[in-house]
Amino acid sequence: xxxxxxxxxxxxHKHTKDMVELEGISRAKECLQNADLIxxxxxxxxxxxxxxxxxxxxxxxxxxxxxxLDLDANKLIxxxxxxxxxxxxxxxxxxxxxxxxxxxxxxxxxxxxxxxIVQPFLRHFExxxxxxxxxxxAEHPRITHARYRQQLERCNEHLHIFLHEYAPDIFPDTAxxxxxxxxxxxxxxxxxxxxxxxxxxxxxxxxFCIGK
Length: 212
Known about the structure:
The chain is mainly α. The chain is 52% helix and 8% strand.
């Protein structure tokens, strides 16, 4: 899709002893570790039931759902996970309106004409890929130093931890949550030229022979 490779993995579940299924699940988990974008398919009715009845946010539901699939959300930090609500054709008009208010969740069904659901879904999916990978035919700025890449990766981790942990309705302490954003900002500052004390010491001990 738009020049990006895609992998359709085996379904993940914990309750199986079949050797073929277990091998498929193991390979699927390996793919997740190497993926940049993970499409997490869930039942639309189950998603709405947890959000409306259990008062869960979509992010908290996603975390719990990953646990149900025997996946550690902490190991997926730094990866883009897109939650997709499947079988929306089974929802009532009222429930469809509720689901439409959750912008972070993509909606899909194969029971309706492609022009109504599937094509808009694919357009949104392509947009995600462009955001993540850019335009394959266009020229993009390159990371010229390993240190820049390291700082960008750290920045990405801090931002994902913030998005994963910060829930105003459950844990409203913005001061603690904001520290993750400050950490992310410091990573960017180390690239743009706002040099820290640690950076200076690293250069001194790397480029100069101390003690001679």
